[in-house]
Design brief:
With 394 residues, the chain is of the alpha+beta class. Helix content is 32%, strand content 21%. The radius of gyration is 24 Å and the shape is globular.
């Protein structure tokens, strides 16, 4: 570290300081802090998750504890209350911590306990976005985007691109608990470099939709039959500028929506079959990661995961090991889905388009269809009470 102003040595003005401990704010401070904390946790019997480095897991006989770390803010939960209290006491001896009790608010997420489990939403954060955009009194909209909307780079440039980027960036964080706006936010995020007035009008449409759905969020309940079910969908060449396709997926664990995505594909697909097949491959990769995480959490379901797709040609490609000339150009890494299907580790099924939940992540839909898919993402209720979750500040 450079010598601080007012403490420069007259004898050695060009020397630097050698630190015995990391200082907050320096580049190596986060790594040093994580090493210090992880060393203590591993000494206590925790193991660091390979699927998520910020997750630590402790399992002793029938007792399980999970510790999720974000810098100096962490969440601790377990199925044995005495074991959790004992660990908090040992943690308090090693670090100066503040026990905030039952988890109610974490990184902008509001946590509400229900008879069926947990409800997560970001209503407070959403109000802050509306206030920043001066739309707190705006008239609500029924859907995030109109059905006939189209995006292009042509048009009158927006006068304040920084303001546009600020609002869209805030909306991206809001999608953590709002999968219903994922596709709309993905579309407006593609023009951050040079937004137009039309693009900002679509952002205001999203904000008006949020104004009428401030209480929306995600519900998590204990599943009666835990299983992994994924919905995979893609459009074909919808982008007018690049002719690339947009794919989306939604993955449910025991009826609870745990992962979703709306993203433009990196290459141009020559057919709808190809775009759907690439979407299924990306969905499969996400399901594999989730299975690894569930295995470490000791919650892996006994049944094999299933992917539902509304394109029969893409389903045929996943089940047929013979490649013909129409798919020779598809990269080899996308064909790993075939091996999983052939080995019995993955199951693929056809589903009608009208029941394809992932359709909400690939295009703007009419209000009745949008509300139907939105209702399908809600988890079933459960009568058992959730395990207590504590929030700790180190």
């Amino acid at each position: 570290m450079e010598q601080p102003p007012g403490f420069i040595s007259h004898q050695f003005p060009n020397h630097v300081c050698k630190l015995n401990k990391a200082l907050y704010g320096l580049k190596q401070a986060p790594r040093a802090w994580f090493h210090r904390l992880s060393t203590f946790l591993i000494g206590e019997g925790f193991s660091c998750s390979r699927a998520d480095p910020s997750l630590f897991i402790l399992k002793r006989d029938s007792c399980i504890m999970y510790l999720l770390v974000y810098v100096d803010d962490s969440i601790l939960t377990g199925n044995n209350e005495l074991m959790v209290k004992s660990f908090i006491a040992r943690l308090n001896k090693e670090f100066v911590i503040k026990d905030l009790g039952k988890l109610n608010y974490f990184l902008g997420l509001d946590v509400t306990y229900t008879n069926g489990g947990l409800f997560l939403n970001q209503s407070k954060y959403a109000r802050e976005i509306l206030d920043r955009a001066h739309m707190i009194d705006a008239k609500p909209a029924p859907t995030p985007l109109s059905t006939n909307v189209s995006f292009s780079t042509t048009g009158e440039p927006y006068s304040d691109p920084t303001h546009y980027r600020s609002i869209v960036g805030a909306l991206q964080y809001l999608t953590i608990t709002r999968p219903d706006i994922s596709y709309a936010v993905n579309q407006v995020s593609q023009f951050l470099h040079k937004p137009t007035v039309h693009h900002f009008q679509e952002v205001k449409r999203i904000l008006r939709y949020i104004k009428g759905t401030l209480t929306f969020g995600l519900t998590f309940s204990k599943p009666s039959m835990p299983s992994l079910l994924g919905y995979s969908d893609a459009d074909w060449a919808r982008c007018l500028e690049t002719r690339r396709s947009t794919y989306g997926y939604s993955i449910f664990f025991g009826g609870n929506l745990v992962s979703w995505s709306a993203k433009k594909q990196p290459t141009v697909s020559r057919s709808s079959c190809e775009s759907e097949y690439r979407a299924m491959a990306n969905t499969t990769a996400e399901i594999i990661w989730i299975t690894h995480l569930l295995c470490e959490l000791h919650a892996l379901p006994p049944t094999r995961p299933t992917i539902l797709c509304d394109n029969r040609s893409a389903l045929f490609l996943t089940q047929n090991p013979i490649s013909h000339k129409r798919v020779k150009h598809i990269e080899l890494d996308y064909h790993f889905i075939r091996k999983l299907v052939a080995s019995g580790k993955l199951h693929t099924h056809f589903i009608p388009t009208k029941l394809q939940v992932a359709d909400i992540f690939t295009k703007s839909l009419p209000k009745p269809q949008f509300e139907f898919f939105l209702e399908a993402t809600k988890a079933p209720t459960c009568i058992k009470k959730p395990t207590c979750i504590k929030r700790l500040i180190l």
